[in-house]
Design a protein that fits this description.
- By secondary structure, the chain is mainly beta.
- The chain has a single domain, classed as Galactose-binding domain-like (Jelly Rolls, Sandwich), CATH 2.60.120.
- It has no helices and 9 strands.
- The strands form 2 sheets. Strands 1, 3, 6, 7 and 9 form a 5-stranded antiparallel sheet that branches. It has a 4-stranded antiparallel sheet with strand order 2-8-4-5, with no helix packed on it.
- The protein is globular, with a radius of gyration of 14 Å.
Length: 113
């Protein structure tokens, strides 16, 4: 159960299989308590890693497994370090692009004030 002190920021990467990143703006100070993703198709060849970064450093990594991957697969991480964010800052979500197939991924960052 979430508290009224939690807020949610959605993000999307157009393809998890090409190295790149998205910068997500932070509307209020807080601490990242969870990042959860949903894959929109099947990836192949290798796992894809999503690295979550704040101004403090790397907060965590989500590994999206290619073996048995399918649309709707959900993965998550609950960062315990480098997870503080400031209003007006950004959170970087970076994919290593190790997998193949141009598949998008959507996610939600949960921040507790």
């Amino acid at each position: 159960m979430r508290t009224l002190n939690d807020y949610f920021i959605p993000f999307s990467l157009s393809t998890i299989s090409t190295a790149g990143q998205v910068y997500v703006p932070v509307p209020d100070d807080g601490k990242i308590i969870k990042v959860i993703t949903a894959l929109n198709g099947t990836i192949a060849t290798a796992d894809a890693d999503l690295t979550i970064k704040t101004a403090e450093g790397t907060a965590g990594t989500i590994t999206v497994a290619y073996s048995g991957s399918a649309a709707g697969d959900v993965d998550s991480v609950e960062p315990t370090s480098n997870n503080n964010v400031l209003e007006g800052g950004t959170i970087e979500i970076e994919t290593d692009g190790a997998s193949t197939n141009a598949v998008s991924i959507d996610g939600t960052i949960v921040i507790r004030r």
